[in-house]
Amino acid sequence: MAITDWPEHERPRERLLRLGAAALSDAELLAIFLRVGVRGKSAVDLARDLLQHFGNDLTRLAEASIKDIAAIPGMGPAKGVQLKASLEMARRALATQMNGKDLLSSPAAVRDWLTLKLAGLGYEVFGALWLDTKNRLIAWEELFRGTLSQTSVFPREVVKRALAHNAAAVLLCHNHPSGVAEPSQADELLTQNLKQALALVDVRVLDHFIVAGTARPLSFAERGLL
Fold it and tell me: Are 218 and 115 in contact (CB under 8 A)?
């Protein structure tokens, strides 16, 4: 059944107008973007198929290639391109929220941006948000990339990048492709080693986030691990 045949109060677009975007499910929001379905399937059905293909994980969908998205029946290259563009706009909107602000006063924006950036990756990435003396963002930088299970992080290289950016502070982050956000002993040891190395050049480690799936990124500072 086409969405136009649904009762008006159940249609995603009308529900959004009446209740706001936050009231809609992932599939309903995606259906509004898709606009139309395919023969025998509404836009909501197609959205559900798309989400199911990527494990009902929006971050995996965000990181999927256009080729993989286009391969889903009913999608195609044009919709794949449009979807990738809209997801990139979401990332940039969050980045704009962070620019020029004290990032310690915008923890939700930082967490949301890191989730969009890292949660859907199938390999481990270690990165840094370099900050100035007022905790404003200078730059995001991917420092190291590893395998599914581990990555090699060298404190000397991190210190070199801190000096190159003339940073006063840093928010460290890495992802766990396993989907489990709990820090390992190796994670804790690495954090302490980096904190000590960066202290030698007067760069403060304000936090270290672990991103895993769509759950709220884990904060070392909140856990008392810094």
Answer: no
- C-alpha to C-alpha distance for 206 and 44, rounded to whole angstroms: 42
Backbone angles phi, psi at 130, to 5 degrees: -80, 135
Beta strand 169-175 pairing with 204-211: parallel
Structure tokens at 197: 């190395």
- pLDDT single digits (tens) 51-79: 888 888 776 777 778 888 888 888 888 88
* pTM for this entry: 0.70
User: At 169, which amino acid appears?
Assistant: A
Residue 224's CB is within 10 A of a number of other CB atoms, namely: 7
Please check whether residue 155 is in contact with residue 193, taking contact to mean a CB–CB distance below 8 angstroms: yes
Report the alpha-carbon distance of residue 184 to residue 181 in Å, rounded. Answer: 9
pLDDT tens sequence across 131-160: 999 999 999 999 998 876 666 889 999 999
Helix (H, G, I), strand (E, B) or coil at 104: helix
Distance CA 224, CA 226 (A): 6
d(CA 34, CA 57): 17
The tokens for 224 are 């008392």
What is the distance between the alpha carbons of residues 60 and 68, in angstroms, rounded to a whole number? 11
- For 42, 84, 193, the CA distances from 182, given in Å and listed in that order, are 40, 30, 19
In 3D space, the residue among 88, 20, 55 whose CA is nearest the CA of residue 213 turns out to be 55
Does residue 147 sit in helix, strand or coil? coil
Calpha distance 216→118 (Å, rounded): 12
- Spatial CA neighbour of 60 closest among 83, 43, 37: 83
